[in-house]
Amino acid sequence: MNGVVIPVPFHTDMPEAKDFVANMQKMFGVNPTWRTFASLDAMNAILVDSHVDTTRQEIQAKLQDKNFQVAGSTEAVRFLPNGDRIGRGVLVQIKPQAKGYRFAMMTP
Question: Which domains does the chain have, with CATH numbers?
Answer without folding.
Answer: 15-86 (3.40.50.2300)
